[in-house]
């Protein structure tokens, strides 16, 4: 399994290296950047949902914290963008760590509602603090600079997010095959059985929730700097549902399922734009068909069909 996983990583790196050479114009390069950003977020979310079996319907709120940290701190306080990004990730991790223990005492629909409420609270706070965040209209984000070099073009940003995606896939593969990853899978299978064999259930739940939240915060900052403008829509409920859908469609507990789900659901709205008003209906129908005929997700279903593990 480890060899197959690393073979998949080599393919991902090769595709990322070749892609800028073959895309016909900047529109497709921009789409590739957004796919990579979503893929990193979904990798972290899949560790929480797919491997640990813990639902989160408010994950876009963590993106909002990272994005607005990268907008507010440099604009109003003169912080360096990298320092602001790190501060956003630290605040997100601390918030997730503090709230995870009471939240993960809940199960099932109660857990889903608690995480949903957390995301909604973050979104409302962003919208209401208009003095700092610009309110519903959003605010501009200063350009990102690295060692005196300013990231301005799509190609610059492509290589940054391609590197982040490659590192995230590598880290996910190693995490899953580590004792920590095996504890997460045991937790998903049965919390009672995990406790019996000595797994600290609460500690692992908190750790993976914090990790996935920090993933989201960092990519929220990247999105903010890449786009150059941020609005509360980045942190709204519908974005959270979109991220969870990417996990489910690609395949829960599948690293490469996360990538496929992010790529497909980022590209699909663009492909359906020619339906002129019916794209939402077509999008919903495609999702329904996928879930009816491939309930475990695309990658696990195809892997089972052709007799290969993820």
Secondary structure: elements and pairs:
Elements: H1 2-22, H2 26-51, H3 60-77, H4 81-103, H5 108-128, H6 130-133, E1 139-140, E2 144-146, E3 149-151, H7 154-176, H8 179-189, H9 191-196, H10 201-227, E4 229-230, H11 237-250, H12 255-271, H13 279-293, H14 298-305
Antiparallel strand pairs: 1-4, 2-3
Helix pairs in contact: 1-7, 2-7, 2-10, 2-11, 2-12, 3-4, 3-5, 3-10, 4-10, 8-10, 11-12
Can you tell me about this structure?
This protein has 310 residues and is mainly α. The longest helix has 27 residues, at 201-227. It has one domain (2-13, 26-305). Helix content is 75%, strand content 3%. It contains 14 helices and four strands. The protein starts with a helix and ends in a 5-residue tail after the last helix. The mean pLDDT is 90. Strands 1-4 form a two-stranded antiparallel sheet. A two-stranded antiparallel ribbon has the order 2-3.
Outline the biggest β-sheet. Answer: 2 strands, antiparallel
Number of domains: 1
Q: Class by helix and strand content? A: mainly alpha
> What is the CA-based Rg, rounded?
19 Å
State the total count of DSSP E strands: 4
Number of helices: 14
Helix content: over 70%
Report the span from N to C terminus.
7 Å
Low-confidence sequence ranges: none
Kindly estimate the percentage of residues that lie in beta strands according to DSSP: under 5%
Order of helices and strands: HHHHHHEEEHHHHEHHHH
Strand order of the largest sheet: 1-4
